[in-house]
Specification:
31% of the residues lie in helices and 51% in strands. It has 142 residues and is α+β, with helices and mostly antiparallel strands. It has a single domain, classed as Nuclear Transport Factor 2, Chain: A (Roll), CATH 3.10.450.50. It has a six-stranded mixed sheet. The N and C termini lie far apart (46 Å).
Length: 142
């Protein structure tokens, strides 16, 4: 059985990782690209479909292009997190609302994440977005 200190540390780590994913959503809503990039390790990777970028410079360029006229409102929940020392893996469900080209959009998916503790804080080392659908709200998702 783990020590009480180890169990408390794991709870704190899980909560810090949940907060990291929530901060990502907040930064996306605010279109704060520098803050989004700072949530990744220096060699951090973002994947979404055919997109695969690594490193802060390429992440910044990708988010600059992707955010354009998009006004997303992402919400994440249903976190499953496994912590092993200074590394962790997790998944969380994504519900997405937004506006693209003047049209209300609705989407859903999940993230498959890898995390690394750097300088006492957690960062994304690899984030993979699996998007189930993204359609005009008037069309519906079913």
């Amino acid at each position: 059985m783990k020590t009480l200190e180890a169990r408390i540390q794991e709870i704190e780590d899980r909560e810090s990782i949940r907060e990291l994913t929530a901060m990502y959503c907040k930064c996306v809503v605010q279109a704060d690209i520098d803050a989004i990039v700072d949530l990744f390790t220096p060699d951090g990777i973002m994947e979404a479909g055919d997109t695969h970028v690594a490193g802060h410079e390429k992440l910044r360029a990708m988010y600059d292009e992707a955010m354009g006229d998009l006004r997303p409102l992402p919400c994440v929940h249903n976190h499953i997190i496994e912590v092993e020392g200074d590394r962790a893996r997790g998944t969380c469900t994504l519900e997405l609302r937004g506006v693209a080209d003047g049209t209300s959009q609705i989407g859903a998916g999940h993230y498959e994440d890898e995390f690394q503790r750097l300088d006492g804080g957690w960062k994304f080392s690899h984030r993979n977005l699996i998007l189930y659908h993204m359609v005009p709200l008037s069309q519906g998702w079913a």
